[in-house]
Amino acid sequence: MKRLERRKRRSMEKYQDAALSPRERAEDLLEKMTLKEKVGQLNQRLYGFRIYERAGENVTFTEEFREEVEKMGGLGVLYGFYRADPWADKDENTGITIGLSGKAYNALQKYVLDHSRLGIPVMMSSECPHGHPALGGGLLPVNLAAGATFDPEALKEGYEACGRQLKSGHVELALMSALDVLRDPRWGRSEECYSEDPYLSSRMAAAAVTGMQSEGVSCVAEHFCGQGETTGGVNASAARIGEQELREIHFPAMQACCDAGVDGVMAAYNEIDGVYCHGNPWLLRDVLREEMGFQGIVMADGLAVDFLKNTEGDTLHAGATALKAGVDVGLWDESFSRLGEAVEKGLVDERLLDEAVLRVLELKFKRGLFEHPYMEENMLEAEEAGINAASLKLARESAVLLKNERQVLPLKDHYKKIALIGYHAADRYAMLGDYTPPMPESSCVTVLSGMKNEAPEGVSVEYAMGSGFNQADGAELEKALKLAIESDVIVVAAGGSSSRFGGAVFDENGAVSKESGSLSMDCGEGMDSAMCHIPAAQEELILELSKLGKPLVVLLIAGRPYCIEEIEKASDAVLYSFYPGPMGGKALADLVYGNCCPSGRLPASLPRHVGQLPVYYNSRSSSTAAYRDMESLPLHTFGEGLSYTGFSISDVRTAFVETEEKHLDGDSGIRVSFRIKNTGDQEGTAVPLLFSRRLQGSPVPRVKELKAFTRVELKAGEEKEVSLTVKRSALDPVKVPGRRTDRADRVLLMLTEGKDECWKEEILL
């Protein structure tokens, strides 16, 4: 048998030998490839949802697909084969359902393999900003909601579940929003950020990458870099910031993903200091590869390489510039299809082309595509993969209680009749965020169904819409007022929406057109806003209901931090939920009725008015904004959040700890230990946050910087010992090469829980 095996191995090509490393196999295969075949591996030109037609149970491939395979000598990467949403124009009747996924994928892969001289399989890529936007795809709450949990482990488990579904569908590349830091809430894609804080963003990004890749699916972390701080919050506009800001705020999440072993990175649309990210070798080579140690593939964003025509003149030179800058794989662009021509004309060295191809091939070998190119069965259902359970946990932990006067929440049994009012109570898509597939009613729990299903015995819930999403409706208002008058308590579900299911018009890169006539969205990609208020019709509805004098609870469901000062003044209680996902209605009902206790904390500050922006908590101490006509501080700042119970922190101690402690990674640090107690009469979760502030040195210190956090579950009256540790190096200023940096000798440490600063102490390092 051993002799037979040796003979078999001698007869096969080196790259076909699974006993060799992915790198060795990729190097051998690369030597055998023509220039045309090499270029083909770096192209991702096709929109996967456009390459097939479905009639009943039969899927046929378009001539465009066949021509592309012929032109490229195979196919390197295919985007969005399973994608289904209004932009893709695919639904249950025209798209790839879970039941058809195995048959359709295998037919596609067979065609590519049959028309590849060397038998190189295609690698599938799919969006996964908060789950899989495919028919039957499972969804989590959006990133901003995940950030509000301050629970990296829960997010890791969520992406493990998503990874199981993607892996079962033979998706090898998950395009995951992980790197953008929310510095301007006017940005329509605010929901894709974990936080305004770099440390929290880093922890959550690393958890997401670790969870997904543990299931055998490679992550492409997006976007690198600075897209969360573009001019005026406008998508893809210039990031007008310097290197110090980049290194302190926008690089840490990328470094955390590199440390977690991320396999891919997507470059950002924007330019930094006049240089497009896709054409920036300092960013993609010097920083990303040399400084951060990244070894994977760099993917372009949709059509972004073609945008380099603005500086390079045409697509030929644009492709050459992007490759030289460090982009490995295109997306929908013409430029990368001309790389062979660019090599032949001497615009780019073939050696750089080979480096990019090698990285793509190595990843294909790493993911086992050559040994297992076909699906054995269809994709897992979301519930089978465990996505629904993970989604519910994140949704419960993410809602932030901002106000609770007269202890209206949780709703007591003596509120026998609840008036549930608002567009968001019954619309499932308003809870889900952008990049959402068609979702049957049976797969979502709306606020209305959740409130009815979880209502205590003897409590009734009646519904009236009150207004449209962004249009007042006199008849609906009258119904809502009548219902409210007849009820014991009013619960309003209101907010924003990224739903594409209201007639939106799309640009070629999938963003919503600025001229879109959609009546159901004010957030999402392409929906940047100069004002950060919920639609006026909904705000007016809340203000009218407040005049009735009934207890008023507002559930805000949103994709960005809104200005809610007037709404908050008019309400007795405010529970803020960033798009909580398909289980959001059950999660919010559980919180409203007191089946569980709110533990979410704001991942980003809420402004009083857009004129205050920026209002992130960690500005530099040189910022002394004091307006003549309004309060300069935000309405609510990062880390705030109330509970139904109370917590006290006592016996705070600090100690220096040494390098032998494993979690310090060879660095020394400071441990802050304390006792934390649940002082109320119900179980709850505290979220203590440890901040620091440098008291001297250059560059200018920030007012406050998050350095550590944890979640502590406590039964009524229970007390626990807790420790938080910060590395010594994390207390020093971030160094920019060639600039003066002074090591911090004195720092102020601060410990908070919810809204309260519990302790602070100056530390001499």
Descriptive terms for the model:
765 residues; alpha/beta; Rossmann fold; Immunoglobulin-like; six-stranded mixed β-sheet; 25 strands; 30% helix; 18% strand
Q: How are the secondary structure elements laid out?
A:
Blueprint: H1 2-11, H2 22-31, H3 35-41, E1 52-55, E2 58-61, H4 63-72, E3 77-79, H5 98-114, E4 123-127, H6 143-149, H7 152-168, E5 173-177, H8 198-213, E6 218-224, H9 243-250, H10 252-259, E7 264-267, E8 271-272, E9 275-276, H11 281-291, E10 297-299, H12 304-307, H13 309-312, H14 315-325, H15 339-344, H16 350-366, H17 382-385, H18 387-398, E11 400-404, E12 417-421, H19 423-426, H20 447-454, E13 460-464, H21 474-485, E14 489-495, H22 536-546, E15 552-558, H23 565-570, E16 573-578, H24 584-593, E17 647-657, E18 669-678, E19 684-686, E20 688-694, E21 705-709, E22 712-714, E23 719-727, E24 746-753, E25 756-764
Parallel strand pairs: 3-4, 4-5, 5-6, 6-7, 7-10, 12-13, 12-14, 14-15, 15-16
Antiparallel strand pairs: 1-2, 8-9, 11-16, 17-18, 18-23, 19-22, 20-21, 20-24, 24-25
Helix pairs in contact: 2-16, 6-18, 7-8, 7-18, 8-10, 18-24, 20-24
